[in-house]
Design goal:
This protein is an alpha+beta fold. 28% of the residues lie in helices and 35% in strands.
Amino acid sequence: MSDHHYEFNVKMTCGGCSGAIDRVLKKTDGVKEINIDLEEQTVKVTTAPECSYDTVYEKIHKTGKEIISGKQVD
């Protein structure tokens, strides 16, 4: 099975916001790559096949940041 690619549009206002998301995702099993663009308000995540969209969504949600949209990009 191949890796999964997810993209989220997340309301972030500062480096602290993006840093919180980065920290929580780095601790998530199966996350391989994280690209956060504060200016574009996007979080792109590459995961191993066993790490689901819902898992990544919940991890970002738990930071308290508003997720405007999200999708799997494969």
